[in-house]
Design goal:
It is built from twelve helices and six strands. By secondary structure, it is an alpha/beta fold.
Length: 266
Amino acid sequence: MQGKVNLTHYGRVDQYTLLHVVGDMVGLLDALGRETAVIAGHDWGAPVAWHAAQLRPDRFRAVIALSVPFIPRGQAYPSKSVPETDDAVFYQTYFQAPGVAETEFENDVRFSVRTSLYGASGDAPQPAIIPEGHVFMVPRKGGMRANWVNPASLPPWLTEADVDAYVEQFERTGYRGGLNWYRNIDRNWQLLAPFAGLKITVPALLIAGDRDIVLAFRGMDQVISNLSKDVPKLRKTLILPGCGHWTQQERPQEVNTAMIEFLKGL
């Protein structure tokens, strides 16, 4: 791929822990000359935002999370609690071996971008029945592409120009940096042991779609219903009907309105 970045740190898995990324957020505040800020994050950016607010409430005075709620540290390694069948493994398990998912995604970046954006959206058809916790499973034979659907046309919230922008960047950098995040899930569990049970004490807002695949993960309904126990200043949980995983892209007006309302109330 022309112009692809080849940086040594892309291969250093242990440089992508939650503590590293939260540290990056603190460093960003320092670079901007700001003492405090409200932090917002979507998908895996949400745990970064949650933990930034948890670990450094002196710097992050409020938190907005899209798609993913705060998930308290469990009693065992996260990798031990994910679903698995004779025919398929959970996508996070599939991502663990360096080089496997990279090869699949980078073989045809445009196909990867189009199918992932469409497949996780509220516009994609969903199975009539999903066994508890068994969503986002990857066939042991065939990889992720076996289940991907490349739509003939894009949903109204997504343009080919958007796809072009994503493709350009992933062709330049590859997928290893993002995938290394998944390879730190168990390491994060170890590193965060001293903070087990620590509540998030700043005001918070959660926004998600009722067709978001994350909400179908095993136990997620209980996590959301009990969220205020770990986030006592949770102001609101907004679940958008018909919305999939790409919350702020699929429903920009509702998301912007909710965020502005939350910010004005601080």
